[in-house]
From TrEMBL:
The gene is nadA. It comes from Isoptericola dokdonensis DS-3. NCBIfam families: nadA, PRK09375.2-2, PRK09375.2-4. It is found in: Cytoplasm. GO terms for cellular component: cytosol. Binds 1 [4Fe-4S] cluster per subunit. Its cofactor is [4Fe-4S] cluster. Iminosuccinate binds at residues 25, 42, 121-123, 142, 244-246, 261. [4Fe-4S] cluster binds at residues 89, 218, 308. This is Quinolinate synthase. It comes from the Bacteria.
Length: 357
């Protein structure tokens, strides 16, 4: 990156000192990660957001829903800044609170709302997390989806009972976790399409289901296919295929290992020198992992899949602008969740943070 800009970033970071705390998600660009005090997956960043209550500013290098969660979890005095407001998440955009409320009304009409626990993936708006808190559910991330689902099913009679989970908004994480980790069958899962009346399902289909999956997905991970796994296995004998659980069921089933971004990093740290890996997740992370392990062969699962375009919105110019503005006393791009939503979203986030490790 531009050496002048790096110099300005260093100067602004030094001027802010302990007044600022910079968090960076693993999908961020190298030029941004260089300035992060803590890097992590979305769970670790939620845990760490509140780690520096004395810092006036929490600069969140990640996407909007993560910064909202940081605002909810930090003190009222702390201000959370997202260096580019256009850093959203296409998956989070696939569920709007109005649609979720309508979906719940459909479950009520089918007579199953009382027997259903909402579980929302971190990748959702604060309003949906608040809905989840109000209805006795929990937030989860890709690193604790299994415990979150077990906890939710335990509230309504256990995994082997008849209770249900409404899982939003990532159908793949919900399906992969229910089938591969909880032992449910694909037939236990139905997809609720918010664009269709009644979700596109009959009341009987809803009553028969155990996992009601929101029709949402990640545009980056949705592009990996089983073909990619077959191709890399043919090309690289003995390769270990490691993918994120936002990938389609066929991909996760064909892979050797599945886990969050933090899990992927740890798996490579623990890997034998000389071993070969094909990783199915966002490209900034895969490139960094490859660079960190020159003694291991790291392949990208599909060379045509690119970066997460919204994660990439946060670049050094935006970070410099945000930090220099704070140095000059102007708080730009502050993320504020309204008090009522913040209260109930916190209930659902605290529930996640209290799940057994
Ligand atoms: P992690 O929870 O693994 O960090 O994933 C977040 C995300 O947005 C993946 O697309
Ligand atoms: Fe959202 Fe996918 Fe980007 Fe993660 S990788 S922030 S789920 S669009």
């Amino acid at each position: 990156s531009d050496p002048d800009l790096v110099e300005r970033a260093r100067a602004a970071r030094a001027a802010l000192g302990d007044r600022a705390f910079v968090l960076g998600h693993h999908y961020q660009r190298d030029e941004v990660i260089d300035f992060a005090d803590v890097t992590g997956d979305s769970f670790k960043l939620a845990q760490r957001a509140a780690a520096r209550p004395e810092a006036e500013f929490v600069i969140f290098c990640g996407v909007h829903f993560m910064a909202e969660s940081a605002d909810i979890l930090t003190t009222d005095a702390q201000q959370v800044v997202l260096p580019d407001m256009a850093a959203g998440c296409s998956m989070a955009d696939m569920a709007e609170i109005g649609q979720v409320e309508e979906a719940w009304a459909v479950l009520e009409d089918a007579g199953i709302a009382g027997d259903t626990v909402p579980v929302t993936y971190m990748n959702s708006t604060a309003a949906i997390k608040a809905f989840t808190g109000r209805h006795g559910g929990t937030v989860c991330t890709s690193s604790n989806a299994q415990v979150a689902l077990r906890w939710a099913f335990d509230k309504v009679g256990g995994v082997d009972g008849t209770g249900k989970v409404l899982f939003m908004p990532d159908q793949h994480l919900g399906r992969n976790t229910a089938v591969l980790q909880l032992g449910m069958s694909l037939d236990d899962c139905v997809v609720f399409d918010p664009r269709k009346p009644g979700g596109g399902l009959t009341a009987q289909e809803l009553r028969d289901a155990r996992m009601i999956l929101w029709r949402g997905h990640c545009s980056v991970h949705g592009r990996f296919s089983q073909r990619n796994v077959d191709d890399v296995r043919a090309k690289v004998p003995g390769v270990n295929v490691l993918v994120h659980p936002e990938c389609k069921h066929e991909v996760v089933t064909a892979a050797d290992m599945v886990g969050s971004t933090e899990y992927i990093i740890k798996a490579l740290e623990a890997a034998e020198p000389g071993s070969s890996w094909a990783i199915g997740t966002e490209l900034n992370l895969v490139r960094r992992v490859a660079r960190a392990h020159p003694d291991k062969q790291v392949h990208y699962l599909d060379s045509t899949v690119c970066f997460c375009s919204t994660m990439n919105r946060i670049d050094l110019p935006h970070l410099v602008w945000a930090m220099e503005s704070l140095v000059e006393g102007r708080v730009v791009n502050r993320i504020v969740v309204d008090a009522d939503d913040a209260h109930w979203a916190r209930v659902a986030l605290d529930q996640m943070l209290a799940l057994p490790g």
